[in-house]
Amino acid sequence: MTDEPHLLTEVDGHVAVIRLNRPKVLNALNLSLMQDLAGLMEQYDADAHIRVILLAGGERAWAAGADIGDMATATRAEMEQRDQFTQWERIKAIKKPIVAAVSGFALGGGCELMMHCDIVICSENAKIGQPEINIGVMPGAGGTQRLTRAVGKAVAMDIVLSGRFLSAKEALSYGLVSRVVPREHWLDEARRVAKDVAKKAPISLRHAKESVLNAEEKTLSDGLVRERQLFYDLFDTEDQKEGMAAFIEKRRPTFSGK
Fold first, then answer.
1. CA pair distance 178, 172, nearest whole angstrom
2. Known catalytic residue at 78
3. Which member of 38, 63, 66, 100 is catalytic?
4. What is the CATH number for 234?
5. What range defines the domain where residue 94 resides?
6. Is residue 173 part of a domain?
7. Is 109 in the active site?
8. What is the count of structural domains for the chain?
């Protein structure tokens, strides 16, 4: 009898759905899962039919962190040689919008994976945090950097140094998640949002995502220069002509991704 796959996939219209599937360990993120997840995302990123990627966990856990058993006895040299963070860089490079459906625990690497996504739909029962400090380490997949940019130094220091969990309501108030919904609707709402985003012009989606992410990494002046370049580039697309014509003609646009 073969083990269940640690990732489940389906395609729903223009939305590719990936579900983390290690429920016995609360979707702990081991190296094998991260390699497969990065590969799947790259596959969907290159697929012209797919416009949005929806990444979901389970109701009890989005992902409760890295797989501690996978690294508990490792040395510094072994961890560096493993180079596990390469998989995270691959996910960071995905150009299409990623919608996260988060329920239950989103801790450690799970919180970091959530922060790699673009729109986060969060169940009211979610618990979010970076508790690595409790086991003698610290966040290593961007937690100290992305969390600080999202919530500010004071709150990030509190979360990282104390290891406390945020409620969904707190995470929303700090700007760490996009929307909080009732527990019974977390996945349906994320799917609805993903489908809605997938109706937009695909090139515009990719350009807009790039520009927003640039705000975290570039100076304001450099970000504005690139934003204008991306804006002007869209006027060479068929979808810009279709979108504006549809607006003038008071009809819904039909975008082709060209």
1. 7
2. no
3. 66
4. 1.10.12.10
5. 7-198
6. yes
7. yes
8. 2
Q: Catalytic: 10? A: no
Among residues 63, 110, 132, 227, which one is catalytic? 132
Please tell me whether residues 222 and 239 are part of one structural domain: yes
Which CATH number fits the domain that encloses residue 193?
3.90.226.10
Determine the longest span between alpha carbons in the chain, in angstroms. Answer: 65
DSSP alpha helix (H) spans, the chain: 31-45, 76-82, 85-92, 109-115, 143-151, 153-162, 168-173, 186-198, 202-217, 220-233, 238-248
User: Catalytic residue at 112?
Assistant: yes
Single out the catalytic residue among 65, 108, 112, 168.
112
pLDDT tens per residue across all 258 residues of the chain: 347 899 999 999 999 999 999 999 999 999 999 999 999 999 999 999 999 999 999 999 999 987 787 788 888 898 888 878 899 999 999 999 999 999 999 999 999 999 999 999 999 999 999 999 999 999 999 999 999 999 999 999 999 999 999 999 999 999 999 999 999 999 999 999 999 999 999 999 999 999 999 999 999 999 999 999 999 999 999 999 999 999 999 999 999 999
Does residue 258 lie in a domain region? no
